[in-house]
Design brief:
Oligomer: single chain
Distance between the termini: 45 Å
Number of helices: 7
Strand content: under 5%
Radius of gyration: 20 Å
Structural class: mainly alpha
Mean pLDDT: 82
Largest sheet: none
Number of strands: 0
Length: 170
């Protein structure tokens, strides 16, 4: 019998793998500039392989989060804590940018995005997660109303459309 606060090491390992996939994707896509992907260099294939699983990592991470959210209650306090953390770090990053960059390199759009990160999609993943939290009570009711067979079909179709296709198609 599993205790309520006992960790599920399989899910923790899967979460770590998902994070590594996302980090590898970001390393290739945003960390390495100027490497053309239209060459026959063997390194290019390694980089492409590393970058193509980032979306799968995001989907895995969201599925694990949704698994834990299905029985939890979303409260105003949880939403405010998440929003407060996003605003706090966004403001800190803005202060750092303002301190170290020339004013000519700072656009009004950057300032607006930093001051309103959730509504301006400054951090797309957190914005999506915030919206998922808002909708989760309704989604949970829909999920619980489905039969297991129908739910498996929905999961399969979702993984196919939002993970497999975007990974293998350019």
């Amino acid at each position: 019998m599993k205790l309520k606060n006992q960790r599920n090491t399989n899910l923790e390992l899967l979460r770590i793998i998902a994070m590594l996939l996302v980090i590898a994707h970001h390393f290739v896509v945003q960390g390495i500039r100027g490497i053309p992907f239209i060459t026959t260099n063997p390194n290019t294939y390694v980089l492409y392989f590393l970058s193509m699983f980032g979306k799968i990592g995001v989907v895995i991470f969201i599925l694990i989060s949704a698994y834990f959210m299905i029985e939890s209650k979303i409260t105003l306090r949880k939403l405010l804590v998440l929003g407060g953390e996003v605003y706090f770090y966004s403001f800190i990053f803005l202060v750092i940018v303002l301190a170290f960059l020339r004013p000519s390199n700072i656009s009004p759009a950057l300032i607006g995005q930093s001051l309103l990160p959730l509504s301006h999609n400054g951090y797309w993943f957190v914005t999506c997660y915030f919206v998922l939290m808002l909708f989760s009570p309704f989604l949970n009711k829909c999920i619980k109303a489905l039969s297991q067979k129908t739910l498996l079909k929905v999961i399969f179709l979702s993984v196919l459309l939002w993970s497999i296709f975007p990974t293998i198609l350019p």
